[in-house]
Fold these 2 entries.
Entry 1:
Amino acid sequence: MTWHSDQLDTIGHTEELHISSYRRDGSLRRWIPIWVVRVADDLYVRSAFGPDGGWYRNAMRDNTARIRADGIETDVTLHLANDPATNAAVEAAYKAKYRSQPAALEPTVANTAAETTVRPNAAG
């Protein structure tokens, strides 16, 4: 399923979204705040801690998560999107959006984070 334009606008402009993954029993883990960027008609997130980031490891087991941002809460399917062209566009979007926070931005644009570039798509 694709995002509606108003959802893309809302989530793409938010400072951060919250992400949670499902436990085996179907309950949600704790919500983790992460940065999100919009590139064209897609949203992207990265694990600032690379593949060892807890939310990333848990969510990528089943390629599913739940996100919430500015009144939107929905399940998403996660698609690894770490090809060079996508990563270049996502990195540029992170640098433009979060340039006022250079210390926090640095790990998000590092190579280890780039390996975890994920495109969440609205589920259902």
Entry 2:
Amino acid sequence: MGYVRHGGQDWFLVKDSNRSSRYGRFKGYYFYSGDYIRLKMLSGMVHKDLLAGMLPAKPAPADE
């Protein structure tokens, strides 16, 4: 959802829909350090419009 560099470290604002996200001051949002993201993140979703111009217009055919 967001990104900031603070204290020489990368911080990411992440929307979490897990049960524990309902607790705390900012319900459903967490700041995670870049190190934590690199260590723990298994997958992420990005809207296709954000990738416009970065990906080829047509996907390459799959090798059989």
